[in-house]
């Protein structure tokens, strides 16, 4: 297991093909031990052995170092992992119940997910008016995803777990999250309603090219 973006000892870095990290065989285990020297921020972890298969099967997640002082100003703190998969056994334009295998070696993906789910099964991000919201975006897989917010502008506050000085922060409404990147964005909830938050690549807003809207798509929902 590779601890993405963390400055740790070589033997704990998790790339057994080229460094002294151990390869964890089936029915075996290994305890990783390291002291965190990085500043607070958004990082990830993922497999780094037989990567083309294991990583594209979704073996990874978030590793977040919290800052208790800064986090006092954030009312909602979300992490969203962006992933894509090729589900085998479905014709283009077809979605039906069943159990299907994933093809990790293809470049042709038909399902695009946020935290492992496609719309309508993604989890809405609930907020209240005037709250401060942070969304941490991570991507360990193949494609880049331009993530777009409706009804708001956001500040880009951190890149790859590193805080961006306030005077250098950009105001945007779309940010491209390439493979291997994390970005932190923040916005003030000032515009009540139900607002889309999604990848802006049109095909990535569908489930196997079917209607209605699906894919790498969720909503920001005001409670009041």
Describe the structure.
By secondary structure, the chain is mostly beta strands. The chain has one domain: Immunoglobulin-like. The chain contains one helix and 15 strands; from the N terminus they run ββαβββββββββββββ. It has one helix at about 50-55; strands at about 1-5, 40-45, 60-65, 75-85, 110-115, 125, 130-140, 145-150, 155-160, 160-165, 170, 175, 180-190, 195-200, 215-220. The longest helix has 4 residues, at about 50-55.
Give the low-confidence spans: none
CATH fold node name: Immunoglobulin-like
Portion of residues in helices? under 10%
Compute the number of helices. Answer: 1
Report the biggest beta sheet as strand number plus sense, adding barrel if it closes: 7 strands, mixed
Number of strands: 15
Tell me the overall shape.
flat
What is the CA–CA distance across the termini?
Answer: 42 Å
CATH architecture: Sandwich
Annotation keywords:
2% helix, Immunoglobulin-like, single chain, five-stranded mixed beta sheet, seven-stranded mixed beta sheet, 35% strand, mainly beta, 1 helix
């Amino acid at each position: 297991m590779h601890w993405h973006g963390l400055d740790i000892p070589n033997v704990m870095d998790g790339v057994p093909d080229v460094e002294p990290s151990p390869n964890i065989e089936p029915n075996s285990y290994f305890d990783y031990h390291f002291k965190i020297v990085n500043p607070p921020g958004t990082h990830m972890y993922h497999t780094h052995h037989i990567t083309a298969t294991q990583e594209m099967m979704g073996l990874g997640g978030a590793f977040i170092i919290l800052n208790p002082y800064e986090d006092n100003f954030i009312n909602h703190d979300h992490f969203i992992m962006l992933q894509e998969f090729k589900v085998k056994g479905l014709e283009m334009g077809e979605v039906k119940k069943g159990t299907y295998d994933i093809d990790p070696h293809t470049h042709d993906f038909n399902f695009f997910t946020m935290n492992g789910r496609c719309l309508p099964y993604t989890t809405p991000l609930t907020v209240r008016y005037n709250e401060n919201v942070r969304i941490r975006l991570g991507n360990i897989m193949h494609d880049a995803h331009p993530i777009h917010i409706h009804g708001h502008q956001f500040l880009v506050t951190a890149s790859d777990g590193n805080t961006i000085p306030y005077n250098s922060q950009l105001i945007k409404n779309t940010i491209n999250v390439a493979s291997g990147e994390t970005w932190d964005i923040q916005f003030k909830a000032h515009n009540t309603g139900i607002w889309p938050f999604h990848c802006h690549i049109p095909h990535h807003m569908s489930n196997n090219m079917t209607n209605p809207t699906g894919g790498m798509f969720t909503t920001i929902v005001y409670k009041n």
